[in-house]
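**User:**
If convenient, please work through this fold.
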Amino acid sequence: MEAGIVGLPNVGKSTLFNALTEAGAEANNYPFCTIEPNVGIINVPDPNLDILQNHVETEKLLPATTKIVDIAGLVKGASEGAGLGNKFLSHIRDVDAILQVVRCFENEDVTHVDGSVDSLRDVETIETELMLADLQTVENALQKAKKQARSGDKEAQRYQAILSQCQEVLEEGKPVRSMDIQDPEDLRLLKGLALLSAKRVLYVANVNEDEVSDGNAETQRLDAYAAERNSRVIRVCAQIEAELSELEMEDRMVMLEDLGMNEPALHSIIRGVYDLLGLQSYYTAGPKEIRAWTIPQGASAPQAAGVIHGDFERGFIRANIFSIDDLQEYGSENAIKDAGKLRVEGKEYIMQHGDVCHFLFNV
């Protein structure tokens, strides 16, 4: 899973990236202090791994991971090259989801590229640039598709049709994701274009320290905007999160308690991306390793096995499965089995979050 952090200059993108990854990327009070994208790999916070480790002796613990890309600040006109915009937009094309950092704090010492704080104006600036970039991409692809479609090529004709729909939506000022395309063939045809406005967006409202819990007028406007678009907003104080990330665990817990927080807000961001993309985790646990595996919600047992190795999916026979809840109740896999709670599931089984699996296969 890969998420790209985007936003206007000076909204806290690199500060948030540093907090998420502890990477120490440059974060200064001037536009475009990030030129090339910063990339980091972070572990997905998962309390189920702690439960497994408490009940299963193992040599190592391997959480799921997320790749985070810090994209340089976008400005109005980015789709036409403003602020090196075309270069920056290209860095977003490969990500699965967008974390749009929105400035919702007042601070005279931190310059706003447009001179004032206005969360919806900023969001719409970014959205517009993504849509304009997509419109260029779609129009170029449509010209080629029309030529191929004239020859009677059925796939080219279908491609032309879906591109024409995308063009119409973009010209109306709506993102491609608003089309809610479900047909697998249409999704396959569009996949190669990596359209920016087709990607799901999680809004990260960067607020002052005393506004994390209750927000402010700008976060309220942003909440309403996101709700209308079937998205969500997570409030953070990027500066607090950066300070927390630099502390040892014991000191970090003390600071969280002083702030009235149960966990860093960054944990909510990562879980938010998982939910946004429709992902979940299942686990394998044994003496060599306990590991979390990322799968789409609704994945079958063979598909989940294929995440480990393609041979597991091709030769799938069955899966022996128990839940994290069962492990907490009975204390060990053997006790679960003795209690008759170890399940044997076949090819039709749909994986559930928190499943712990042993796969049997033959190739």
